[in-house]
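EI: anyone free to look at a 298-residue chain?
SC: sure, send it
EI:
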Amino acid sequence: MAHPMSSQPHAAMSALTLANEIKTLFSLPEAVFKLGQLLNSPYVTNGEIGEVIISDPALTARVLQLANSGLMDSPAKIETVSGAIALIGREALRNLLVATTVTNRFQGIPPELIDMERFWLNSVACGVIARSLAFRCRVFDSEPLFVAGLLHKVGRLALYSGRADLYRQVLAQHDSSEEGLNQAEFSVFGFTHAELGAELLRLWGLPERLQAAVAFYLAPSLAPCYRKSAALIHVASALASNIEPSVSPDEALYGENVCFEKGAWNLLGLPLYVIPPILDEAWIQAFEIFEILRPNPV
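SC: here you go
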């Protein structure tokens, strides 16, 4: 899926080549892989899915934590994997497990390139805000938007991991803005992290809607399909840019990094006054969910 900035014929193939390389280097756990295969069958039972999850204690703990987090809004405590499957749903469970497992796959990235905890907190906040915006847009299957938000910059981790030396050229070229960093990525690689991220989502078997939301989140008006999903991630990414422990909600709302396209906001059809309460909600949920997904130290 070509990114809107891609004007060079070789760019998509280069992104695909690197995505395949990264997929090989940072493979998903066996239990998550088997779960994806099971869910491709219409005849699989919840019991069979539960057996795969229970075979991996870390995965079991994560499923129960997700089921009992603010992400699911469960009215009662979920104590069994079968209860978690029933609450979350099969497709949503697969998407969430793939996405949340990724947080622990990218290890060993040079610290001068990225602060991993800050990166994942920002990504979680983007997912939380995208889900909240989607609900207000009456997009009620909002779980995929959380996953897309969580993974919207995973392509940047892939570039850090697979092409660290080249990415230092990107950092040397770019100005202080996010837009400048995206332009520098395209100048050096011929594609941006958004296109590479979409290729990774495709290789991991995540739905086309999520691939499109990530591929076109930098320029949602150019998306050939799932334009509103791309706009949701675009706006959520901008709003999440300042959510971190040292920043207050008011600073996050009015910080200099909060900048989204007017056209993207218009696609959502929402009034601007919904933004402050969304940020207030995100402040609580993002830190809660981040504690569940926090990458383990190497």
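EI: The radius of gyration is 18 Å.
SC: 👍
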